[in-house]
Each structure stands twice: as C-alpha cells, then as structure tokens.
C-alpha cells in the first residue's frame, strides 16, 4: 500500500498548469523571452527553471534549453545546441569552430531562443566564450541566462561580452512560507490519496525552507515512507532523509568524484563544524583509494569543490595570510 496515486506531479521536471505567485515574472517572460537577452537571477528553488521552461513551451520560436550543470564547457554546450537545432545527435569529431559555423547557419534561417540555465557552472570553465560567440552572431539569437550565484553579470564578464549581451535583468525572490504551503498543497492534491496528508505536516515543512525543490522532495520522501498518512511526526522524522534525497538528486548530474568529495566533507563535518580544504582533500584521497577510484589532482578537486559550492551544498570561506597563505574553510549546508 502507498499513499502515492500518481508520482508524476511530484517529479522535479513536472510543470503544473497553475503557477503559485510569480505572476509578474511569468508575464515578463512571455513578453520578453523571444525579443531580448535576459539575465534571470535568484536563489535555488525559486522557480527560475520552471517558469522559463513553461515560457519556452508556449513560445512559437525555435528554442534550445541547455543546463550548465550537465553541459559544463563551451564545447559540450555547442554540441547540445546544435543537436537540439538539428534534432539529431552531434558526433564528437567536430572542431569548436565547425560547431559554431553550423549553429550560425541555423540562425540565418530561423529565429532562435537559447536558454543557458545554471550558467554559473559554464562560467567556471570557458562559458564566457560561448556567451560571446552567441551574442555576436549576426542574426542575434535571443539569449536567456539563468544564475543562482552570479548576481551581476557585468562584474563576471569581460566588457566586450557584457556589452554585446546587454541583458535585461530580472530577480526571482525566495518563496514565502505561505507560497511553499500552496505549492505543496497543490502537488499533494494532484498526486496523493485523498486525506492522506495531515495539514500539520505541510505547515511543518512550509516555513522550514524557502527552496520549493527541497520542500517538494521532503513531501515526496514522506509519502514514499508511509502506507497510510503523511503526518507531522513522520515529516519531522524524515527531515534528514529528505535533505539527503535532495543532495543525491543534485549530485546525480556530476561525477563520482563530486560524490566522494561531498561525503568527505560530510564525514569531517560530523567531527567539526568548520573543515579545512586540506583535510577534505586528504579524506577524499583516502576514500577514493579505498574504493579503488583513481585520485584526481588537488587542482581538479579544488574546481569540484567550487562546483559543490555553486550547487549550494557547501559554503566556503576564504582566509588569507597565516602560515599556509590562502586557505579555505568549508561548511556543510543543511536543511
Ligand atoms: N510557482 C511555482 N508553482 C508551482 N511549483 C513550483 C513553483 N516554483 C517552483 N516550483 C517547483 O519547485 C521546484 C523547484 O523549482 P525550479 O524552477 O527548479 O527552481 P530554480 O530553477 O529556481 O532552482 C520544481 O519542481 C518546480 O516545479
Ligand atoms: Mg533551476
């Protein structure tokens, strides 16, 4: 027995008809997405991806949606853009400039909207070149960049890139407890058996997080763990499991090394709240060799730590000076 009648509405990629709050943002997107370059910024779980995907579905233009979390370099993103334009797989044999030329050819014959979601991850690599290339195309495809970290693109980009992009910026604010409540109640009514969710359970989750994705994952975790009702007690009990499910969902897009690294921070954080990056490297190395995984260089690992930070899974504070020069103190984010 399960209380879940239809799992689809609880899935991360599900887009409901009714959007809670964010009416203005929805209107702004439907009016602007096809006509100008945009930069959407806001913390995780504020509905950025969700609203943009809905606007893309409703758009008449040819659209490409790229997630920088999945396609983290210019090359991979170009490949994916071309593949979406041609609706065909693109082999890895092309040179970057060939991919660029083929994409340019497509923009000559149709109006294109390109969404670069999770741009923060592309910017850790050579994403700037991608933005420059796209923004300089003669037929000006319309570019929408979405970030959770980079608040101000002008500070992040070289002047020549920023000035050819000139995005209109729109900020997504975190949801209030009431809005999270509404989002949860709506999904519960669509996916769970009647009367299987106690009101107290939802009022417990709603003020605990402003991230709609965490809230939905929590509800789903609870629903999966009961045969009769999602109660406040159950929800409280599963707080940790819910967050674990959320982080696992995020780490899924990255590599095994990210996972090992995250678990290294988790282990160390049990002993001490703030952990030094050096200790994390050591712990990662010993866990990796235990698991027979070839250990990556400190340089790569440092890049991966930055990615975990951009994902909002850890916080890193930089300290300058002292014996070791620059050090990083790492903290685990928790629910
Ligand atoms: N206004 C909303 N109404 C209903 N569901 C929402 C709303 N905003 C976000 N969600 C849901 O919350 C989750 C997180 O939203 P998402 O768009 O992925 O956030 P972001 O891209 O800002 O991190 C998704 O599963 C989405 O369906
Ligand atoms: Mg998103």
UniProtKB/TrEMBL annotation:
<dbReference type="GO" id="GO:0005524">
    <property type="term" value="F:ATP binding"/>
</dbReference>
<feature type="domain" description="Cdc6 C-terminal">
    <location>
        <begin position="261"/>
        <end position="335"/>
    </location>
</feature>
<dbReference type="InterPro" id="IPR050311">
    <property type="entry name" value="ORC1/CDC6"/>
</dbReference>
<dbReference type="InterPro" id="IPR015163">
    <property type="entry name" value="Cdc6_C"/>
</dbReference>
<dbReference type="GO" id="GO:0016887">
    <property type="term" value="F:ATP hydrolysis activity"/>
</dbReference>
<keyword id="KW-0067">ATP-binding</keyword>
<dbReference type="Pfam" id="PF09079">
    <property type="entry name" value="WHD_Cdc6"/>
</dbReference>
<dbReference type="Pfam" id="PF13401">
    <property type="entry name" value="AAA_22"/>
</dbReference>
<dbReference type="InterPro" id="IPR049945">
    <property type="entry name" value="AAA_22"/>
</dbReference>
<feature type="domain" description="AAA+ ATPase">
    <location>
        <begin position="34"/>
        <end position="171"/>
    </location>
</feature>
<keyword id="KW-0547">Nucleotide-binding</keyword>
<dbReference type="InterPro" id="IPR036390">
    <property type="entry name" value="WH_DNA-bd_sf"/>
</dbReference>
<dbReference type="InterPro" id="IPR027417">
    <property type="entry name" value="P-loop_NTPase"/>
</dbReference>
<keyword id="KW-0235">DNA replication</keyword>
<dbReference type="GO" id="GO:0006260">
    <property type="term" value="P:DNA replication"/>
</dbReference>
<dbReference type="InterPro" id="IPR036388">
    <property type="entry name" value="WH-like_DNA-bd_sf"/>
</dbReference>
<comment type="similarity">
    <text>Belongs to the CDC6/cdc18 family.</text>
</comment>
<dbReference type="InterPro" id="IPR003593">
    <property type="entry name" value="AAA+_ATPase"/>
</dbReference>
<protein>
    <submittedName>
        <fullName>AAA family ATPase</fullName>
    </submittedName>
</protein>
């Amino acid at each position: 027995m399960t209380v879940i009648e239809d799992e689809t509405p609880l899935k991360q990629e599900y887009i409901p008809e009714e959007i809670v709050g964010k009416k203005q943002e929805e209107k702004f997107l439907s009016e602007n997405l096809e006509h100008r370059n945009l930069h959407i910024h806001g913390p995780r779980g504020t509905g950025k991806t969700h609203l943009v995907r809905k606007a893309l579905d409703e758009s008449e233009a040819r659209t490409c949606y790229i997630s920088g979390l999945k396609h983290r370099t210019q090359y991979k993103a170009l490949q994916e853009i071309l593949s979406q334009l041609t609706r065909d797989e693109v082999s890895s044999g092309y040179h970057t400039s060939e991919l660029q030329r083929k994409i340019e050819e497509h923009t000559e014959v149709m109006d294109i909207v390109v969404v670069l979601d999770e741009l923060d991850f592309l910017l850790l690599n050579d994403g700037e070149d991608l933005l420059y290339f796209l923004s300089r195309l003669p037929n000006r495809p319309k570019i929408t960049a979405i970030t959770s970290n980079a608040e101000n693109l002008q500070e992040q980009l070289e002047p020549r890139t920023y000035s050819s992009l000139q995005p209109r910026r729109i900020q997504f604010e975190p949801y209030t407890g009431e809005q999270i409540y509404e989002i949860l109640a709506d999904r519960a009514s669509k996916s769970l058996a009647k009367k299987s969710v106690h009101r107290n359970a939802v009022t417990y989750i709603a003020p605990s997080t402003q991230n709609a994705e965490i809230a939905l994952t929590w509800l789903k975790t609870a629903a999966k763990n009961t045969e009769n009702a999602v109660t406040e007690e159950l929800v409280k009990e599963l707080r940790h499991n819910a967050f674990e499910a959320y982080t696992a969902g995020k780490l899924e897009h990255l590599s095994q090394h990210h996972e090992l690294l995250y678990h290294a921070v988790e282990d160390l954080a049990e002993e001490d709240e703030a952990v030094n990056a050096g200790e994390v490297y050591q712990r990662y190395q010993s866990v990796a060799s235990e698991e027979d995984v070839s250990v990556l260089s400190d340089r790569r690992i440092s890049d991966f730590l930055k990615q975990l930070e951009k994902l909002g899974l850890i916080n890193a504070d930089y300290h300058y000076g002292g014996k070791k020069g620059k050090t990083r103190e790492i903290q685990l984010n928790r629910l």
